[in-house]
């Protein structure tokens, strides 16, 4: 290990994160009954300019009046380039800050963006004498945000998670997309050379670099990386495939833009029974090996060593977190 210790952010279960437009209060009660880990009430892109003020009021009322159970609650404020943002922070934190676990910052571009919101939230929390400390979740969804992702991840003690906002990221980088978070047939390789007949087309994951880069910045700063939206909510298999790719790269959660996607996210982002069984056997095999004075042994015909224990412990920890949720 490095001499530098990576401090871990608040250990919050975040397999699924449901987006609920603040302008549609008729959706709030249903959302409160879902088995979702985090709900973010949206004041930003799901809300039209004329509805911003009413949406803010709806969100404050919903945080104060609805029983959200054990869910973590977040509010996505408007971007720092809009005049809605300061009132989002002031009104929501002043009037519902004690019921709020996190604020979601969209289109974060630089560490100074994080600093500015941190300063405002700190003043409000101090003035109101709140005991809780509101965390930050940042959406990395612009070329600028991706360029500065490491500084953003390190910019505040409030930081908890980084989210890949694929829709805005595509707009910002001018990527050619087909659907939000979906694959593109043009991002493919042909097998073989021009002499080969029947060459196969293998689609690639055009979001691989962006997600992998964000995961590194998140983990190097003790934060949770999450994958953002998958727009086609009538395609559960497409959603599952996207969630699995993100999980393989290290993401521990994914957004749901429709209630039907919540169960899919929880399923993909929870360790399977077989994974947990193997993790427990690894921990036992390594304990036995250590007692016998060995640092590496074989299990099921494969080498395991101390790195295997660290992976297994992460899995066992996740199972405990799910059990306590
Ligand atoms: C989320 O905000 C996105 O732009 O994908
Ligand atoms: Mg966005």
Features:
single chain, 325 residues, alpha/beta, 2 domains, 8-stranded parallel beta barrel, 12 strands, 16% strand, binds glyoxylic acid
Describe this structure in words.
- With 325 residues, this protein is of the alpha/beta class.
- It has 12 helices and 12 strands.
- It has 2 domains: 16-270, Phosphoenolpyruvate-binding domains (TIM Barrel, Alpha-Beta Barrel); 274-324, no CATH class.
- Helix 2 runs parallel beside helix 3, helix 9 packs parallel to helix 10 and helix 11 (273-291) crosses helix 12.
- The protein is globular and about 60 Å long.
- The structure holds glyoxylic acid and magnesium ion.
- The site of magnesium ion has 7 residues, from helix 7.
Number of helices: 12
- The SSE order reads EHEHEHEHEHHEHEEHEHEHHEEH
Total strands: 12
User: What's the CATH superfamily of the largest domain, by name?
Assistant: Phosphoenolpyruvate-binding domains
CATH domain class of the largest domain: Alpha Beta
Q: Low-confidence stretches at least 5 residues in length (pLDDT < 50)? A: none
Percent helix, as a range, is: 40-55%
> For the residues shown, what is the average pLDDT?
96
Give the end-to-end Cα distance, rounded to a whole number of Å. 31 Å
Second rung of CATH, namely the architecture of the largest domain? Alpha-Beta Barrel
CATH topology of the largest domain: TIM Barrel
Helix/strand class: alpha/beta
Chemical compounds bound to the protein? glyoxylic acid, magnesium ion
Count of discrete domains: 2
Order of strands, main sheet, comes to: 1-2-3-4-5-6-9-10
Q: Which percent band covers the strand fraction?
A: 15-25%
Major sheet description: 8 strands, parallel, barrel
Tertiary shape = globular
Q: Write down the Rg.
A: 21 Å
């Amino acid at each position: 290990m490095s001499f530098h210790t990576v401090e871990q952010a608040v250990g919050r279960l975040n397999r699924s994160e449901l987006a609920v437009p603040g302008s549609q209060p008729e959706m709030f009660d249903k959302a409160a009954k879902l088995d979702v880990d985090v709900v973010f009430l949206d004041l930003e892109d799901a809300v039209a300019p004329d509805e911003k003020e009413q949406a803010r009021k709806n969100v404050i009322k919903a945080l104060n009046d609805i029983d959200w159970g054990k869910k973590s609650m977040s509010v996505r404020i408007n971007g720092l380039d809009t005049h809605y943002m300061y009132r989002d922070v002031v009104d929501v934190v002043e009037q519902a800050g004690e019921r709020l676990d996190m604020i979601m910052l969209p289109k974060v571009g630089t560490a100074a963006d994080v600093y500015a919101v941190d300063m405002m939230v700190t003043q409000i929390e101090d003035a109101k004498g709140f005991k809780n400390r509101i965390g930050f979740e940042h959406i990395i969804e612009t070329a600028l945000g991706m360029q500065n992702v490491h500084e953003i991840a390190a910019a505040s003690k409030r930081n908890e998670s980084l989210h890949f906002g694929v829709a805005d990221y595509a707009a910002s980088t001018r990527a050619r997309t087909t659907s939000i978070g979906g694959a593109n047939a043009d991002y493919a390789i042909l097998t073989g050379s021009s002499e080969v007949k029947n060459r196969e087309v293998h689609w690639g994951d055009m979001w691989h670099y962006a997600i992998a880069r964000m995961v590194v910045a998140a983990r190097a700063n003790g934060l949770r990386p999450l994958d953002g939206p998958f727009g086609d909510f009538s395609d559960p298999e497409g959603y599952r495939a996207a969630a699995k790719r993100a999980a393989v790269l290290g993401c521990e959660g994914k957004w749901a833009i429709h209630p039907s996607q919540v169960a899919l996210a929880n399923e993909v982002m929870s360790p399977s029974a077989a994974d947990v069984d193997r993790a427990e056997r690894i921990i036992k095999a390594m304990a036995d090996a250590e007692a016998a004075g060995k640092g590496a042994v074989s299990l099921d015909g494969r080498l395991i060593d101390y790195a295997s224990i660290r992976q297994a412990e992460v899995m066992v920890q996740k199972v405990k977190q799910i059990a306590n949720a």
